[in-house]
Prior knowledge:
The protein is α/β, with parallel strands linked by helices. The protein has helices spanning 16-20, 27-37, 41-57, 60-73, 78-126, 130-135, 138-180, 182-190, 192-227, 230-238, 242-265, 268-294, 303-324, 326-344, 406-411, 436-441, 457-462, 470-479, 483-487, 506-520, 536-550, 562-566, 585-591, 594-623; strands spanning 2-4, 11-13, 367-377, 380-390, 395-399, 421-426, 429-430, 443-446, 524-528, 554-558, 570-575, 578-583.
Amino acid sequence: MATGPGPRGPIKFLTEEEKQSMPKVTKELMLRILSYLRPYWLQLLLVLVAIVLSATVGLLPSIITGRIVDEALVGKDMKLLIQLLLMAFFTLALSQVISVLESYINAWISQRIIFDMKNQMYDHLQHMPHSFFSTEKQGDIITRMNTDISGVSSVISGTLSSIVSNIATVVTTLVALFTMSWQLAIVGILVIPLLILPTRSVGRTRWQLLNESQAKNDEMNQLINETLSVSGSLLVKLFTREKREYDRFVAVNEEVTQLALKEQRSGKWFRVVMGMFTQLGPLLIYFAGGWLIITGKDSTLTVGTVTASVSLINRLYRPVESLLNIHVDFTRSLALFTRIFDYFDRELAIVSPPHGRRASMDENCEIRFEHAQFSYLPEKPLLTDINFTIPTGRMYAVVGPSGSGKSTLVNLIPRLYDVTGGAVYINDINVKSYDLTFLRSNIGVVTQESYLFNGTIRDNLLYAKEDATEEELEAACRIANIHDFIMNQPDGYDTEVGNRGLKLSGGEKQRLSIARVVLKDPRILILDEATSALDSISENAIQDALEAIMRGRTNIVIAHRLTTILKADSILVVKDGVIAEQGTHDELLARGGVYRELYETQFRQVLDYESERGEGKEKITDEHP
């Protein structure tokens, strides 16, 4: 937010970006915003009543001051003076109590609206398709979820109530001023342009300095984030660039400091002059009032009225200045809601159909792709005509060049993505016809990059089956060959894994992911290069276990390792958006097509490498029995 110094508060400006992306005010937008206020209309009514009462009661101390001067002091009435002072104190106290009450109700309303919106946003985001999370920046999602929605609080308790409060204060103050003396009211109002117009000019200068300072602060934060993160600090140490990075930081820090000093110096003398101008209005009122009284031009005007008018005119300046910023505050408030509504309006492309099918998959679980098509962008199709069938209880391997769409293909089965043409069937039922929760509960996926939540090993395992017994947990971990490792930890299954599982190695995380899927006990098993993070020893250790859990299930495996591919009942070769070849390892080699090319360039090299490693180990064993 761009602001400049004002005599009583900041003068605000819209940035160029805000001007260009200024939301269009429509009836629909305003009604949509008001819909969040509708459940709390009674509390809002109380706030409005409190604001009007506060503005009205706030006039009384100034009016009472006039009576103190005219009646108590001039009349030398001590009893009346005490009574009026007590009345003034009571009205001040009452005004403060009303303000506190209004502030409390306002805060309650804004926090309840934030509560409602965050719940709505979280639920909405949970049901967004996987493509949304793969294309949208995670930082943007968190900003909309937290910062933007939390900003609604300032709109409700700040902008909205401020506008109503300032209008109420200005209206009641003007009514009181003109009621007491229209001449003095006009004199006080004429000073306002002298306070506002020059200040906006100086405000723009300071705004430019603030923008420059913010840009340099962003640069410094970027440098800190890059060089003091885990990976960044490691890189600095390995390349011995500590001195270079320190010099960069000192240079940026110096620029930030100089800009901060310029900002603090900017407009110092001008603010002194503005401070004098704020006192000009009361002085002019004293002058005008004195002239009217001394010359006898207004026989009804009293010293008390002049004093009360001075007090009221001081009360007028702040809300007038705030109202001059209504356009900026209103625009920013609309922009905030527009950003939030942008997410709410994103289509939930993948949803469970009404009365979705829940056909049993216990005995039969055949998967069939029929002319399936998919594209992330309409002009760039990825899968154009995919056709194959995986019989129940069989294991099919999917291979292909990098970027051919192997992972996308298997993600069509649990509907992480939906086909843009053709269909995917399970037991002759289109996957789009299944209840989405039922469909995914029968499919287990072990992804190439294992993800663990920040918690214990037990927490991450129970994510698959909340009511799993200790025996079930241990059995699943034995199958994944991770039980012994867990038991060797001081806290066993209650060992903390750290953020994203950083306290574990890649192989340990992947075996935990496999154990989690074993615990889920799905009818369809998808392994997306599930052993890619394991070394040969670890892979061999769980290969038999994987074969055991695959038995009786329908399995589809994306693999780069020949040892996995050789055990497949059939191999699907994906290239140019279609299944270019299908068959066993020997059949596909004999054809001399795409698979043979992959074998020669990828699989054979890995096989030779592992063979050489095996021979090396045998030689060492022979020499050192």
